[in-house]
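seq:
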Amino acid sequence: MNKIQGDIKIFKEIENINRRPKPFEFYTASDLWTDEYTSKQMLAYHLNENIDVSSRNGKFIDHSVEWIVSHFKVETGTKIADVKKLPLTK
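struct:
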């Protein structure tokens, strides 16, 4: 390998190291729930009704419940599951 080929190889390696990953190229959701510090922060964000970071804010949730009740046969004792927030594992 001559100097030019070596320089090209190094440039390509640097270019690859600094490239932006494709969407969903790496699965990192499990890291959010297994790291002690991060999982505590995630839970706090999920349970905070005042912000729209990990879950909808309380006002939005109340509005959504009103909409569901007005569009579907929801009565006392009706059970509705919100399963989108379950941690996913590989």
